[in-house]
Amino acid sequence: MSGKQITVANQPRLSLRRVAGIAADGIRYRLFRCAVTVAVISVAVAFLTNTLSEGLVKRSVSAESRRRLARLHLVHNWMSRLSDPGTIESVMADAASASPGSPSYREIAALGGFAESEMAAFRKESALATGYLRFFSELDYDRRRRFVHTANGTAIFKRLSTPEGMERFIRASGEIRSVRFVSSVDDLRAFLARWPDLGKQARAVLAGRSRAIRAIAGKMGERTVLQALSSADADFGETVRKAGFVLEPEIAAALTGQASRLLVAQRLEKSAELTPVRQLVARKLNVTPMEVTSRLLWRFLRSAANARALIGLMKEGGLSITGLEPESVAALAKTRKEQQALARAERLTSDVGKGLLGVGERMGWLLSVSMLVCAVGIANAMLISVTERFREIATLKCLGALDGFIMILFVMESCVLGAAGGVLGALLGSLIGVGRALALFSFWIPGGLPYGDLFAGMGLAVISGVILAAVAAIYPSFKAARLAPMEAMRVD
Amino acid sequence: MTESTSVTAGARGPESAQPPGGGKSRVIIRTIAMKKSYVMKEVVTEALRGVDVEILTGEFISVMGPSGSGKSTFFNMIGALDSPSEGRVFIDEVDVAQLTAEELAYLRCNKIGYIFQTYNLIHYMTALENVTTPMAFGGVTPDEARERGMELLDLVGLKDRWHHRPIEMSGGQQQRVAIARSMANRPSVLLCDEPTANLDLATGQEILDILEKTNNEKNVTIICATHDHRMMNICDRLMWIRDGRIERIARRDEVHIELGGIGDEAG
Fold this sequence. Notes:
Shape of chain A: extended
Structural class of chain B: alpha/beta
Number of helices of chain A: 22
Order of helices and strands of chain B: HEEEHEEHEHHHEHEHEEH
CATH topology of one domain in chain B: Rossmann fold
Distance between the termini of chain B: 13 Å
Helix content of chain A: over 70%
Oligomer: heterodimer
CATH architecture of one domain in chain B: 3-Layer(aba) Sandwich
Number of strands of chain B: 10
Strand content of chain A: under 5%
Number of domains of chain A: 3
Radius of gyration of chain B: 18 Å
C-alpha cells in the first residue's frame, strides 16, 4: 500500500493550435455572451467608421468638385486675362504660385523678358513680397493702421522704406503682441533694399501684359472676348500666342468648347426677353411670366421638346437660331444642373482640407472623439469579459494551466472577438456613413465614391478593433493569470 | 471538545501519526511552522499561526473547524495554490517554495486533485470536456484523454451523461463530475473543500461513498475539509483547526470512543 512517488517536472506547454481549439470551443459554447461583446465592439467600430467614411467621401467630393469647377472657370479666367492686365500685386502673386516650367511661369518670363535665372529669382522674391502683403491684408483695420497707417498694396513697401514708416512699424510690432510678423526686421530691411528692383521687374511684366492685350484687342475687331475665345483653337489662338501668352493646345480646345457653350447660353437667356418665350415657360412651369428667371428657364430647357418649342419662338421673334439644336440645348441645360450641384458640393465641403486626415475641422474632431469612444468601448467590453471569468481562470490554474496559456487564451479570444466586431462594425459604419454622405450630396457624387480610401479606412478600423481588443485583454488577463489560484477564486 | 483531548493542541501531530495500514506509508505532506497572514487595508489578519503536521500516503484525513478558523487557508497551502508567509510546506519532501511556476502547474495538474464546495466546473464545457481538460494541460493526446475521461465518468456513474453541460446536471452530479476531473491525471493527493456542504444528505452520501472507494481502491491520500459528521465514519484521522492552529489530531478509533460525548455536545 505504498503511495505513488511524486516527482516534479515542468508542465508541458500546449501547442498554439491546441490553445486556439480551446479558445474556439469557449467562444462557441459562450456564443451569446460573446455575441454581446462583439456587438459592443462593433458599435464602437461602427461609430468610428461612420465618421471616417463620411469624412472620406466628403474629402474626395471636395477635391473633385474643386477640380471640376476650376476647369469650368477656365473661360472666365481667360476672359479676364485677355481684357485686364491686373496689378503689380496680382503679377507677383501669379509668379509666386507658378511652379517652374508651368505655362504661367513661362508666360511671365516671356512677358517680362526674363532669362531663366532672373525668372527663378523673380519668383522667389515675389513669393516673399506676397507673403508680406498677405500679412498686412489679413490684419484688422485698427492694427493695420498702427503698423502701416493707410498704406495699401505695394505702397506699404514704399512707406516702410522711409525712416518714419519703419520706425512706426517697429514700434507697432513691439506693442502688438498678439500678431507676429512673418520674418525678422532685418530680413524685412534686406527685402526693402531689393524692393525697387523687384517692383521694376513686376511693372515690366505688367507692361508686357498690357502690350499683349492691346495687340490682341487690335486683332479682335468687332468680336467680344468671349466670341473670340470660341475660336481659340484656330486663328485667335495663334493671335494670343503671338502676343506673348502661353496657350497650350488642349487648353485652347477646352476654351473653345466652353466659350461656345457660354455664347449659346447667353443667347438662350437673352431669348427670355421675348414675351412669347416667357409666356411659354410660365405656362409649362405653372408660374406667372414675371417670375421666369434664368434658373427656371434652364430647368424648362432640360427636355428636348421644350427646347424645340423655345427655338421655334426665337425664330419667330427674329433672333438668330444658327447652331441651336434642341438636343444640344437640353444637354447644355443638364450640364448647368451639374454645375449647380458642383457649386453646392463645394459649399458643403468648404472646411475640408483642415483637421485630422484632411476631412475638415469638424469631421476631424468628431473622428478623434469617436476613436476615443471606440477605444473606451472595446477596453470596457474586454475588461468585463475577462474579470467576469476570474473564477474560471482560477479553476483552470488549479487544473494545471500555465500563466502563459491563460494569457494566450484570452488574448486570442479577444482578437477573434475584435476581428468579428471590427468587420461587422466597419461594414455597418461605412454603410451608414456613405449613406449619409450620399443623402447630403443628393446621390450625385462627382468622381464616384472613393472606394480605395473607404476600404483602407475599413481595414484600418478592423485592425484597430483587433489591436484595441487584444491590448485591452492583456492587462486584466495578465492580472488574472498572475494571481494565486485561490486569490482569484476569492474575487466575486 | 477539549475534555477528550488525547493529542494536545499546538500540533504534536507528527509524533502521534500512526500509519493506517501497516508500516509502508511515507509522509506525503509535511508542514513546518506554517504561517499565513493577509494584509487588507493595513490590517494584518493572521489566518494560520504556525501549523506543523505530517500526512501519510493513503491516509483519509478530515479537517474540521468553524468557519474563519483558517481551514481553507490551510488547504490552499498544502495544495500548492498559495504560498505561506512563513514556514515551509513539503509535498513528498519537495519544498513547494522552491518550485518554479511551471513546476507548480505540473504539480497541480498531475499530483494533486481539487474538489470544491461549489464544484467549479467550467460551465461551457461538457462533462467529458471538463474531465479531460487537466489531461490536455498534462499533454495527454485527445484520443487517450477521451478514453480515460469516459472511464472516470463511468467510475462516478455518469458515463451516459458525458455530453451534458454542468447546467443540465444536479448538484450531486456536478460534484461527481468534479471528482472525476480531480482524478484525471491519477493524482497522489485529493484535496476536498467541503465537498458535501452544498448537497442534500443522500447525494452527500453518494459523494462520500465515491471518496471512500477512491481512497481504498486507488490508495489516494484524501484530505477533506468538512462539517459533515458522517465523514468520521470513513476517515482514518481527524484534525481540528481553530484560530489558525491545530487544536487536535486524533485517529478515528480514538474519537469513536468519545463520539457519544461529542454527539451530546452537538445535539
